[in-house]
Amino acid sequence: MNTEIAIPKKHQYLFWIVLAAFSTFFAEVFSGSDMFPFFNAWGILVVVPLYGLHIILLGSLVYRADKPRFSSLIYAGMLFGLYEAYLTKVLWAPPWGDPVIIAGFAPVETIVLVFWWHAWFSFIIPLLVAEKLLTGSTSLGHSLPGKIGKFFNSWSGLAAVMAFGGLFQSINSPDVGASLLSGISTTAVLVGLVLLWKRITKDRIYTMVELLPNRKQFKWLLIPTGIMYLAMGILIRPDWYPGLIGHLMIWILYGITIYLFSQSLKKPAPELDVKELDTWAPKRWLILSGIFPLAATAGEILIGQFFEPLAIIFWFGGIAFSIVMFIKALKLTFPKESGGSHA
After folding, report:
1. What angle do CA 135, 136, 142 make, to 5 degrees?
2. Which pTM value belongs to this model?
3. Where are the domains of the chain?
């Protein structure tokens, strides 16, 4: 479809901005890495564009196939997370604790950030929420398999995600006031953007394919993405680049992930059990936005003494979850000939 004719540019660009804000919120605000990314120059000029360019470009590749595939979502999310190597250097030299370094990189942080956090909170969940709130598409929701699909497609499942995000942020928050202010202010920005979208589009129904970049736009967006990689690669923690072996490990991970992603896109789209997904009345999604600040504030007040064991549980729970999902993606990418597996 020719999106240049079908969609006013201001609608498409606004969608990109909202999608960038969603990705930034679920990744940075949930983690507490940047509790106010929409209210400082670094957040507006660097963090939001970084997340926006990644989710817009990778999302367009996933949706460019006839149907989004669960396996493609996992691999694209992993490619997203690999920015933590050359942009932030975190996969080589985590700036916290006393990380284990093997073969020049940090394996635990790599699994946590690449396989779990960025794959799900920077990519899959923001895309799913955008699909549900802003479009008439349901293809991503239908691509999520089994119980995991039932969970994330339900209002209660996403309410649990918001509660988890609040608790996770409280681990890294400096105090109760910061958690409350961060929760209220950042969710207010998201609500405002969604309301602006509905007002400007006048509830016109678009698909995700129409709203994401077409091939020409995709090529143009590669330019600012390349500039960002070059600038941040040079300016952000340049002293923490590893030796050759560290680079080699990341190149291998990039190579494997790109190969898996390309293979997943070549597979025939699975036949899905297309059932009706939950729809949300406006009041229900507005309630979602209130769960996060409440959970973040409650976490600071009620479980402050348990932050360290809670962080360990979250990290290793995330590792276990991401490994199970990665194995599921591999099985879908390389199904047994006799298997009738479908996402």
Report:
1. 105
2. 0.92
3. 3-333
Q: Long-range contacts made by residues 110-115, C-beta under 8 angstroms, separation at least 24?
A: 110/253, 111/319, 111/322, 111/323, 112/315, 112/318, 112/319, 112/322, 113/81, 113/84, 114/78, 114/81, 114/82, 114/84, 114/253, 115/78, 115/81, 115/319, 115/322, 115/323, 115/325, 115/326
Q: Give the Cα-Cα-Cα angle 39, 126, 150 (nearest 5 degrees).
A: 145
pLDDT digits (tens, 9 = 90+) for 168-183: 999 988 889 999 999 9
Determine the Cα–Cα distance for residues 136 and 7; give it in Å rounded to an integer: 14
Of 178, 189, 164, 181, residue with least CA distance to 295: 164
Contacts of range 150-157, beta carbons closer than 8 Å, 24 or more positions apart: 152/125, 152/128, 153/128, 153/277, 153/278, 154/278, 155/278, 155/280, 155/284, 155/288
Q: Which residues contact 184 (CB under 8 A, 6 or more apart)?
A: 293
Q: What is the pLDDT of residues 52-111, one digit of tens each?
A: 999 999 999 999 887 789 999 999 999 999 999 999 999 999 988 778 999 999 999 999
In the three-class reduction of DSSP (H, G, I as helix; E, B as strand; rest coil), residue 87 is classed as: coil
Those residues whose C-beta lies under 8 Å from the C-beta of residue 222, and which sit 6 or more positions away, are: 57
Residue pair 72/215 in contact by the 8 Å Cβ criterion: no
Close Cβ partners of 25 (under 8 Å, ≥ 6 residues apart): 37, 126, 186, 187, 190
**Which residues make Cβ contacts (< 8 Å) with residue 157, sequence separation at least 6?**
150, 151
